Amino acid sequence: MQSSEIYLESLITATPQEGRELAIKLARKSIGAIQTDPEIRKKLRADYAEDTAQLIASAKVIAIEFQTIAMANNYWKP
Questions:
Q1: What does DSSP assign to residue 14?
Q2: Residues 70, 15: contact at Cβ < 8 Å?
Q3: Please, are residues 34 and 61 in contact by the beta-carbon 8 Å criterion?
Q4: Does residue 43 or residue 4 have the better pLDDT?
Q5: Residue 78: what pLDDT?
Q6: How many CB atoms lie within 10 A of CB 39?
Q7: Average pLDDT over residues 38-62
Q8: 23, 66, 71, 78: least CB-packed within 10 angstroms?
Q9: At 58, which helix (H) or strand (E)?
Q10: CB atoms within 10 A of CB 19
């Protein structure tokens, strides 16, 4: 992946909401890195938009990204 765009300077966020938004961004960036052709991504979107299993799988990816961010931010501290 060759990109000059720096979109991830830190996993530290001010709030859990910002952490969740970052998790979504990371998931989207990962898909963009895997499938680099935007036209193909657009075409495939219709396939998963109505597929419950694929939507759940996408939510799991975001949850894993958020778990990483939450650990970095110590969201679970007492």
A1: S
A2: no
A3: no
A4: 43
A5: 67
A6: 7
A7: 94
A8: 78
A9: helix 52-73
A10: 21
Interatomic CA distance for residues 25 and 13, integer angstroms: 13
Q: Of the candidates 41, 39, 44, which has an alpha carbon nearest to the alpha carbon of residue 31? A: 41
Residue type at 76 in one-letter notation:
W
Kindly tell me the number of DSSP H helices and DSSP E strands found in the chain: 3, 0
The separation between CA 31 and the C-alpha centre of its own chain, rounded to angstroms, equals 8
Q: Hey, what amino acid is at 64?
A: I
Tokens representing 65 are 């990204």
Residue whose pair of structure tokens reads 């990962």 in the numeric block = 30
Q: Report the amino acid identity of residue 26.
A: L
| CB-CB contact of 7 with 29 (8 Å) | yes
Rounded CA gap, 8 and 34, in Å? 17
The three-state secondary structure class of 21 is helix
Q: Is 51 helix (H, G, I), strand (E, B) or coil?
A: coil
d(CA 2, CA 34): 12
